[in-house]
Amino acid sequence: LVTYHAYTPKGNPVTISGTGMGVASTHICIEELANLDAKVILRLGSCGGIDPTVVTGFPLGV
Questions:
Q1: Of 3, 9, 19, 52, which cross-links 29 as Cys (Cβ 3.0–4.6 Å)?
Q2: Which GO terms describe its cellular component (predicted)?
Q3: 25 Cβ neighbours under 8 A, 6+ residues apart
Q4: CA-based angle 20:22:25, to the nearest 5?
């Protein structure tokens, strides 16, 4: 998996990492980040669903 390390304009460290596909891979990555004392974990990605009231391209926040 690809990981990038950078800093915010205020000098705070930021790590950006791909988790792969699926909940199992994401879970492993989140556990590892928590073990490394991550303060904030933000997941961005795509998903599928069967709810006919949610139109294609609708942004979801959970």
A1: 19
A2: cytosol
A3: 19
A4: 55
Asked whether 43 and 54 are in contact (CB, 8 A), the reply is no
Q: Return the half-sphere exposure (C-beta side, CA atoms, 13 A cut-off) of residue 14.
A: 9
Q: List the structure tokens of 14.
A: 């930021």
Encoded tokens for 1: 């998996």
The two three-digit tokens of residue 10, written as one number = 């205020």
Closest CA to 44 of 60, 28, 27, 33: 60
Tens-digit pLDDT profile for residues 3-30:
899 999 999 999 888 888 888 998 998 9
48 contacts 34 by C-beta, under 8 angstroms: no
Dig out the tokens for 29 from the structure. Answer: 């990555």
In 3D, which of 15, 20, 27 has the Cα closest to residue 45?
20
